[in-house]
Every structure is written in structure tokens, then in C-alpha cells.
Amino acid sequence: MNKLNAMSSNVDLDDPRFRIKPYQQIAASCTGAVITSIFVTPLDVVKIRLQTQQKAMLSHKCFLYCNGLMDHLCPCANGKMPEWMRRNGKFNGTVDALVKISKTEGMTSLWSGLSPTLVLAVPATVVYFVSYEQLRLYLKDTYNRKFNKKGTNVEQPYWIPVLAGATARIWAATMK
After folding, report:
1. Which of 105, 132, 157, 159 has the fewest beta carbons closer than 10 A?
2. CA 69 – CA 77 distance, rounded (Å)
3. What values do phi and psi take at 154, rounded to 5?
4. What is the model's pLDDT at position 149?
């Protein structure tokens, strides 16, 4: 066991022999974006419903246009409100909203809005993740070639992941 630990501590994951290819990074980031979206979308639906409910109650305004997610508010006198608000009643928190929405509208309604989320999340995650990793490795390799005369890989300076992350985030946000 000690021999295995000693061997694994000497393995540099940035070693070119162990680096994952860009297509593997793309597959990993797509998978991560899809899984994250599947878990987070129900919470987004609940958050939007809670915010809409609070805004309607505080402003004493009624709903003019109702599609379940993007309810635009405006003053009116007819008392029209979205169907989901009439059916579910007042939500008393996140868990209450999850239960009421799934009971009255069905479990699948918690994932309404998943497709636009995926359209935004998957490409942005791919661009960010692949750009970050490729740029970080390029900067580290360049740093080692120029400043490391021993020929062995040294720990990367703190500024390399910072610069790579900032550049990748700007690039991903620009691509959106």
C-alpha cells in the first residue's frame, strides 16, 4: 500500500502522458452541464414561482400575460392570475412549492424550461471548461520551458490558473 501511495504521489496529472484530450474535455463538460441542469431546473422553477408570488402580493398587481415562467405584471382591474397560482395556492417555502407543484401540475412541470437551460448551459460550459484547461496547460508548459532550467515540471505559479480562469470566463461570456 505504501508503494502505491508513493507512486501516486509522484504522478503529475499535467504530465502530457496523462492529459485528457480536448474531445474528452468536451464530453465531460457536456455531461456535467446536463446533469447539473437536470438537478437545478426544478429549483429554478420553484424560485421563479416564489418570486412571482411575492411580487404579485407586494405590488397588488394582477397578471396580464401568464405562461408559467415569465409572468409579466401590470396594473389592471380584472383580477386575472395564472392558472398555476390559482391551483397551487400560496407557497410557504421551497419544499412546499416543490410538493404543491408536483401534486397539482405533475412531476414533469418541475423541469419546464429545461431545454432553454440546456441550450445556454451546455455550450457555455464546454467553452469555459475546454478553454480553461487548454490555456492553463499552455501557460504552464510555456512557463516551464522558459523558467525551469532543470527540465522537470515544477508547481505552476498561482497566477496561471487565475489568468486562465479569467480569460476562459470572459471568452465563455462573450460567446453567449
Report:
1. 159
2. 22
3. -110, 170
4. 66
